[in-house]
Amino acid sequence: MSTIELPGLLSFTIAILVFFAGAHLNRLIPALTRWSIPEAVTGGLLAALVTLVAYEFFGIEISFELAARDLLLLYFFTGVGLNARISDLLAGGKPLLILLALTLAFLVIQNLLSMAASEVLGLPQGMAILLGSISLIGGHGTAIAWAPIVSSRFGLSNALEIGIASATLGLVIASLIGGPIAQYLIARNGLSGPKDEELTIGVSRDAVVGQEDDVSYISLLRTLLVTNIAIIIGYALHEVILEAGINLPLFVVCLLVAIVMTNSIPILAPHLPWPAHTRGLALISDLSLNVFLAMSLMSMQLWSLSGLGLSLAIVLAVQTLAAIVYIIFVVFPAMGRNYNAAVISAGFSGISLGATPTAIANMTAVTKIHGAATVAFIILPLVSAFFIDLANAAVLGFLVR
Asked: Model pTM?
């Protein structure tokens, strides 16, 4: 087995090519666009399959340097924060609490399902934890962080591999089911988005195809400057928070910093040009999210799923079915049965099986076709990237004990 490690710039460039490959496939196969499968997901999965073929048939393991991916995540969530007005946050108060309650309930359901399925299948003790919220709602980061603890507590030597495999498969499934769920709910209930509201995340497909771009280099540089300042402050504040013993993801801190900036600086300096709700910020956010997702999916090592057997597939199939039923019959009605509820339903697949960026990508793909959903893009990141991490840590601590 030989290993090829691709450096950062080459990995970033390949991710752009992967996105364009996905966009081309989406045009060739209209069903992919109709069901709101993001271009980055299509291309990223194709690239992951190529690396799998290289590994299985040619004995070549391809890995990517992903520092650029992590920076793109900061750009994206800082852009979300810069577009978040206090009025929108207040409007999202009640829906945020409802979504949080729904997510907490599903966190418990997910762990109960993994324990029941593991018992039926006769899986080793401790494996149930790794097939529940630790890797699905928690994602790769949580699985990697908790795997040594599970391994030590239950003597499960391959805990890390199981957690990563479960998180990887969950990410793939979440990327594929979010758009179709939303499309089903929109068509079934005759829903549509606002016609006169500009997208705050991403650029509509109509704009990509038909409109002349009016963004200047001045507006883009101004937007990048404000975004970079917010990220720099976020880095500094994150260190302070860590010193205080609070473990928050860096992108959540940058999101909160951007929210404070966008709701204070325009008031204190009303004549200062501000990038909130501009086409330049929408473009930068769209670019960051799509390349981030392409890099995340193309770097998946699908061969790590082999050897874990049929049991993993059965448990994940049960978890996927439970998530789909819960989204359609619980999340969508509880969130109001309206267009925003359908967009949130697309994102909930990312909360329940994938990761926050997957959730946002699913929602973005839907809004590009049907219109903006401002409240959805504010409340979902706060629930999935902040509150739920704290609750998941508490539940996992209990299960491990």
From this structure: 0.77
Give dist(CA 100, CA 114) in Å, integer.
21
Q: Which residues contact 226 (CB under 8 A, 6 or more apart)?
A: 82, 261, 274, 275
Distance CA 312, CA 323 (A): 16
| Both tokens assigned to 71 | 């920076």
DSSP string, 234-298: HHHHHHHHHHTT----HHHHHHHHHHHHHTTHHHHSTTS---TT-HHHHHHHHHHHHHHHHHHHH
Whole-angstrom distance, CA of residue 380 vs CA of residue 80: 11
3-state secondary structure of 61: strand
What pLDDT does 106 receive? Answer: 94
Q: What per-residue confidence (pLDDT) applies to 401?
A: 65
Dihedral angle of Cα 133, 93, 344, 189, to the nearest 10 degrees? 130
Q: What percent of the chain is helix, strand and coil (3-state, nearest 5)?
A: 75, 0, 20
Backbone angles phi, psi at 62, to 5 degrees: -100, 125
Q: Which of 352, 381, 380 is nearest to 137 (CA)?
A: 352
Contacts of 239 (CB under 8 A, 6+ apart): none
> Percentage of residues in the chain with pLDDT exceeding 90?
43
pLDDT at 135: 86
pLDDT, tens digit, 9 for 90 and up, residues 105-160: 999 999 999 999 989 988 887 888 889 988 888 877 677 667 777 888 888 877 87
Q: Classify 36 in phi/psi space as left (phi over 0), alpha (psi -120 to 50) or beta.
A: left
Highest mean pLDDT among 80-84, 134-138, 189-193: 189-193
Whole-number Å distance between alpha carbons of 42 and 176: 9
Say whether 84 sits in a helix, a strand or coil: coil
Q: What is the mean pLDDT of residues 268-272?
A: 92
Minimal CA–CA distance to 111: which of 128, 87, 91? Answer: 128
Q: Is the pLDDT of residue 97 over 80?
A: yes
Closest CA to 178 of 375, 380, 348, 382: 348
Two structure tokens written together for 290 = 């799509």
Sole residue written with tokens 């883009």:
220
Flag whether pLDDT at 210 surpasses 50.
no
